[in-house]
Structure formats: structure tokens, C-alpha cells
Amino acid sequence: MDNLYGSDLALLKLQQQQKIDSEKLQKLNDRKLKEKTDEFESLIIKTLLDVSMKDSNELFGKDAGDKIYQSMFREQISKSTAGGFGISEILFNFLKENR
Q: CA 71 to CA 55: how far, in whole Å?
């Protein structure tokens, strides 16, 4: 009888550990998904900035490295604003629900 109780206890501990592991995996997957949806929003913002600032010469000069600097500037702006427009959150919630 003690052996039966011991095996039930071991099974319960195993189930609890599996639940904890499953929750940790879910949180990790959610974090990775959020990172990817933020990256996607950043890409959308950068594309919008690229199009809207295509012929913007007032802010930047006409030097040889100017296009590179402009591209880097827009990329940093898009990364810093990603997640603030709501596109990432909508996409994250949609993808999370439809896994």
C-alpha cells in the first residue's frame, strides 16, 4: 500500500513539473513571438519612413555617405517606435490565438 501511495506521489510531482515546464515554454514562445511582431512593425515603419523621406534633402546633406546615414537614421527611428503603433500587439494577439 505504501508503494502505491509513493507511486501516486511521484506521478503527481511529475505532472506538476510538466505543468511548470509547459508554462515556461509558453512564456518563452510568447516572448519570441512578441520580438518577431515588434521586428515586423519596425519594418513597416521603416518602409513608411523610406517612402515619406525619399527626397528629403533639407535634413540631410548631399555627401557620399548621406544615403547610408539616412537609412541608418530611419532604421533606428523605426526600431525605437516599434510596438507603439499597435500593429505588433494586434499581430501578436492574432498569432497567439491561432497557434
A: 13
